[in-house]
Amino acid sequence: MTTREEMAEAGRVLTLVADNPGPLTLDGSRTYVVGEDPCLVIDPGPALGSHLDAVEVAVGAADVAAVCVTHWHPDHAAGAAELVARLGAPLAAMRQSTELAALDPPEISLADGAEIDFAGGRLCAIAAPGHSPEHVCFHWLDAGALFTGDTILGEGTSMIAPPEGNMAAYMNTLERLLELEPSVIYPGHGPPIDEPLRVIEEYIAHRREREHQVLAALAAGAQHIAEIRARVYPQLDQRLHRAAEGSVLAHLEKLAAEGRVAGAQGAYRTLE
Ligand SMILES: [Zn+2]
Questions:
Q1: CATH for 205-270, among 2.20.28, 1.10.10, 1.10.8, 3.90.550?
Q2: What are the structural domain ranges in the chain?
Q3: Alpha-carbon gap, residue 213 to 210, rounded angstroms
Q4: Prior bond to 74 cis, omega within 30?
Q5: How many CB atoms sit inside 10 A of residue 230's CB?
């Protein structure tokens, strides 16, 4: 297994934490500068001048093979246009929105399995829908490192809520990431994960448990999302109700697609 120390010898991974802390961003969005020359930048981060300055300093005089974007949420990608302009580098992302088309520099439109060469070897794009449809994880093949954006966080769990979030897709993505057997995960928020397989398995178990709880709430007579939320997340801070209800809805949509739950006009029932 490759340790982070060995990886530091193989090629650097520099971490820049943006000054945008919050309940969803933890201590702030993380931008990674990977490899020597040419290097890669993974997730530009928010459009904060101080953050982009720090990324530029970390890159130094090296060429940048690509600025890679895991997904288009502003805390990861709002700084993309300015950063690619500053670095003179192409942007690599999965095409989803007009944001990408609006950028001038040469761009790399990623598909699943696309590879980018840089001084550290090869970075492979892994389509990872779930948190958002166009989410990509980046697998640094030579080091066994996985850059997971918002698919897996350094602490807590990821936000999966419709309309962008899709729980069925997310569960498939987690299974796929497990098969990659990464030796370290660099998340979009929070510290690196040195036991990725354990953490990915915990993520899968956590969602299965929530699904059981949603089905149990339905079986106990809860019909509306707020009722289900109250049973699945008892004594939850009121400020988090909306987020929890988004997660409940994501589970309901997955169960409905599997024919295990039926719902109309916001009232759901189990078919089991
Ligand atoms: Zn996100």
A1: 1.10.10
A2: 4-194, 205-270
A3: 5
A4: no
A5: 18
pLDDT given at position 70 = 95
For tokens 């089905």, name the residue: 215
Q: In what order do the strands lie in the sheet with 30-34?
A: 13-17, 30-34, 39-42, 64-68, 91-93, 107-109
At 22, is the pLDDT very low, low, confident or very high (cuts 50, 70, 90)?
Answer: confident
pLDDT in tens, 193-246: 999 999 999 999 999 999 999 999 999 999 999 999 999 999 999 989 999 999
CB–CB of 57/140 below 8 Å?
no
The predicted structure's pLDDT at residue 272: 80
Rg (CA), the chain: 19
Q: Is the omega angle on the peptide bond into residue 162 within 30 degrees of 0, that is, cis?
A: no
Cα(252) to ligand 1 centroid in Å equals 21
Q: Do the bridges between strand 184-187 and strand 145-149 make them parallel or antiparallel, or are there none, so unpaired? A: parallel
**Rounded distance from Cα 92 to ligand 1 centre (Å):** 17
Ligand 1 center to 165 CA (angstroms): 10
**C-alpha 97 to ligand 1 mean position (Å):** 14
Q: Into which CATH architecture does domain 4-194 fall?
A: 4-Layer Sandwich (3.60)
Q: 151 C-alpha to center of ligand 1: Å?
A: 8
CB 41 within 8 A of CB 88: no
Cα distances from 111 to residues 106, 124, 126, in angstroms, run 16, 10, 8
For the question of whether the overall pTM of this predicted structure is more than 0.90, the answer is: yes
pLDDT tens digits along 147-206: 999 999 999 999 999 999 999 999 999 999 999 999 999 999 999 999 999 999 999 999
